[in-house]
């Protein structure tokens, strides 16, 4: 079993079916009679000694193949985790309900976080990495008419939904399935790169930051937007809401980084960007402000569906549900508030 699991961790990055005799599949090193194949849905799965990984309960690995061990061509390990398909590992999943949530989320944050302070001009080329179902890319297209839009996401169904979303809003965009850590674009292809709620889902952001720098023209800008999941405060304090928050951070730690927001500035500096800025934006809603109910609903829109997965991690489901109930009750309390911080970090590619 241990040997089988070790082999399961080998990451196969391939562009076509590879015969069992091949020793290298993309940047993955094959052992023995292992081989990999293109999944008809657009991702890749691999097969170990004739054993279909789907027989092991795995679906398939999309580009990026969350959870595999990646090997450099010389066999050196580049990182590893247990094997999971992106569709399973990704915290929010890829349901129709989640598609609608992302579109509503982009509307909620449009004026308060996503577009203020940005200066994009007609004719300029913008890439959104991790564009999901195109919700924010559409907001950017509407807010900056004439901006030339490109979006990439790891998951084919997200890109299909993004194509529908942009088209339904009368916007044109080049939308592609791609890993932000291996972008299918030439050097200096874009004036701007935009990212929102994407690096928090990534274990290892350095390859993505390097790619962003590479595809930006000299002096081109990058803007990342991420939430810090520890900078979330509910008043009055409630132990089960705190427990729910702790569980959410534990899940993010497993799949990505709940605190990437506060690290963005330093990481952009370390990647060689110039004119780096990074700062928190605070959002505070209180009893008497109709936004308190709206914001609470928004938060529960992703926290409540997470409860079964948090319980799988070992958190007490009854307590998690108490936390959800306590949050739901918040807007009806005589004195209550929610405070949340998110960060925007910006920088320029070296001139
Ligand atoms: C929370 S969604 C946000 C989508 C979009 N930015 C928005 O705000 O509506 C995160 C998206 O990032 C994608 N993603 C995660 N890792 C990625 C990677 N390495 N390359 C490209 N997309 C990635 C996921 O598939 C998912 O669609």
Model description:
- This protein has 351 residues and is of the alpha/beta class.
- The chain folds into two domains: 81 residues, no CATH class; 253 residues, 3-Layer(aba) Sandwich (Rossmann fold).
- Helix content is 36%, strand content 25%.
- The protein is built from ten helices and 14 strands.
- Strands 10-9-8-11-12-14-13 form a seven-stranded mixed β-sheet, with helices on both faces. It has a three-stranded antiparallel β-sheet with strand order 3-4-5, with helices on one face.
- Helix 3 packs parallel to helix 4 and helix 9 packs antiparallel against helix 10.
- The longest helix has 22 residues.
- S-adenosylmethionine binds next to helix 3, helix 4 and strand 9.
Task: Offer a quick outline of the entry.
With 351 residues, the protein is α/β, with parallel strands linked by helices.
Question: Which helices and strands appear, and what pairs or packs with what?
Answer:
Elements: H1 2-8, E1 24-25, E2 28-29, E3 35-38, E4 44-48, E5 51-52, E6 70-71, E7 77-79, H2 86-89, H3 96-114, E8 125-129, H4 135-143, E9 148-153, H5 156-168, E10 173-177, E11 190-196, H6 206-215, E12 216-235, H7 239-255, H8 260-270, E13 274-286, H9 291-312, H10 317-329, E14 337-348
Parallel strand pairs: 8-9, 8-11, 9-10, 11-12
Antiparallel strand pairs: 1-2, 3-4, 4-5, 6-7, 12-14, 13-14
Helix pairs in contact: 3-4, 7-9, 7-10, 9-10
Bound molecules: S-adenosylmethionine.
S-adenosylmethionine binds at residues 64, 90, 92, 102, 106, 129-132, 135-136, 152-155, 158, 179-181, 196-198, 201-202.
